[in-house]
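thread: overnight batch results

M.L. [08:02]
morning all. the overnight job finished for the chain we discussed friday. pasting input first so we're all looking at the same thing
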Amino acid sequence: MMKFHFDKVGVSKTAPRTTFNCEAFIVEWLGLLPDGTVIGSHDIQDKTRQWIFQMYNKTFNADTLNRKFRGIRNDKKYMLDNAGISLTELNIKSKEAKWQVNNAM
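M.L. [08:03]
and the structure it wrote out:
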């Protein structure tokens, strides 16, 4: 699996980050998905958690990942913009929210 380049992910002018954190791992995982992939909340809680553990040997609570993903979507969109990722919320009749991941890379 090819690693995603993280030149500016998680970097803001007011609070630059030099280390990876939960949010940066989520953005990296989203960047590795094929363009047009549809994900749901369960993917963030399960697949992201497994991927982080396999790649970095770090563990996060599933609820923490979901909360951080919500924060990225709502308050820290610059992280997605810096990585060339956009999320489109889909109006699919389902019990969970779903998004289409669009990668510019």
